[in-house]
Specification:
By secondary structure, the protein is an alpha/beta fold. About 40% of the residues lie in helices and about 15% in strands. It has twelve helices and 13 strands. Helix 3 runs parallel beside helix 5. The protein starts with 8 loop residues before the first strand and ends with a helix.
Length: about 350
């Protein structure tokens, strides 16, 4: 399958999102043209200003509702590749209406009509349908999934691309609105990715493009008016490292895998450029850690981080060295296919704290 090359145009859905804006930036830096979708012209103004130095290499189109049939029909015209990043990410979802719906794109499985699942699944299928209908120039579609669709909480194993988070789907199916927020999010990512692969397998004999899916752990250059507007992953990091209110158990035991958002962006460009990435599900992760590891990395910076409005927590120094990894992933496929290099915890801590200081936090 032919891959894209410098100068080609890439469609990035949900271009004002936390990951997406870095993806846009990386494509532009590498010499690609980018068309970004946003839900309203107001949401596109920040992007147009931020990327104004790229002139007509960057453009915005409005897609008000990504779940509607044909939502991306116009947006996909004339692009050479698609990076579908648009999907809701928050861990406190309630239910949009509480009813059970039948989603035919997932083997007729009954799922709950939650505010996360509907947009995640239907938005993914919508853009793929538009790519079939009007994406005559498209060579590859990369979908941003998540390790949330791979891991199963409480299962002690090294997860690979062969694993799926069936547990989260079962929890949401059984508990509905009462299911924990994180389970709803994980179910939305799992069902959306399953829908993408099912659609691709069903239609690949009649299309000219192939599919690649990236699975990062959840990782500021995007539009943030204040600290309360931080995305979910950055807010968790802020509260752990600078909040000074976390429990011993939280710091010593809880944590996750991690990846710098800049590495996620780089992975998107590589997934479109590397021929071998076609038809592949790829876990991208820099490693695992408990929250104390981030505190230790921040305190070990040399020279020390300059923080005029906050103070790095102390917690329980060194506790992460003997802690059991909260989750482990086999990332050999990413190394083999993408050759991805990762930012270290120290580099991530240094740059994140510098960004917070610049914003006055």
């Amino acid at each position: 399958m032919p891959t894209i090359s410098t100068g080609d145009k890439v469609l990035v859905s949900g271009a004002n999102g936390f990951i997406a804006i870095w993806v846009v930036r990386k494509f532009l830096e590498k010499g690609y043209a980018v068309r970004g979708t946003v839900r309203s012209s107001d949401k596109g103004k920040y992007l147009e200003d931020y990327f104004k130095l790229y002139g007509d290499k960057f453009e915005i189109v409005v897609v008000e509702d990504i779940t509607k049939e044909g939502a991306f029909d116009e947006a996909v015209k004339g692009v050479d590749a698609i990076a579908h990043t648009a999907s809701p990410f928050y861990l406190t979802a309630a239910s949009a209406d509480g009813k059970i719906i039948l989603n035919e794109s997932i083997n007729g499985q009954l799922i709950y009509g939650l505010e996360l699942i509907g947009p995640a699944v239907n938005g993914t299928v919508s853009i793929l349908k538009s790519a079939v209908k009007n994406g005559q120039a498209v060579k590859r579609v990369v979908v941003t999934s998540s390790c949330a669709s791979v891991l199963e909480v409480g299962v002690d194993k090294i997860f690979t691309e062969l694993n799926w988070n069936e547990l989260a789907i079962s929890e949401v199916k059984e508990q509905g609105d009462a299911a924990p927020g994180p389970s709803k999010y994980r179910a939305s990512k799992t069902l959306a990715e399953k829908a993408a692969w099912e659609f691709y397998e069903k239609n690949k004999a009649n299309i000219k493009w192939d599919l690649s899916v990236l699975n990062p752990p959840f990782p500021a250059i995007h539009e943030i008016k204040n600290l309360d507007a931080l995305n979910a992953s950055s807010r968790q990091w802020y509260d752990a490292v600078l909040g000074n209110t976390q429990s011993e158990t939280f710091l010593k035991v809880q944590g996750s895998a991690y990846i710098d958002v800049r590495d996620v962006a780089e992975a998107h460009t590589l997934a479109l450029e590397k021929e071998a990435a076609g038809g592949e599900r790829i876990i991208i992760s820099a490693g695992s850690c408990v929250w104390q590891d981030w505190i230790d990395a921040a305190n070990a910076l040399s020279p020390p981080a300059v923080l005029s409005r906050s103070k790095i927590a102390v917690g329980f120094p060194g506790a992460g060295k003997t802690a059991k990894a909260p989750v482990e992933y086999n990332t050999s496929k990413a190394a083999r296919i993408l050759g991805l290099k990762y930012y270290t915890k120290e580099e991530v801590a240094r740059d994140t704290l510098a960004d917070f200081e610049r914003r006055g936090w």
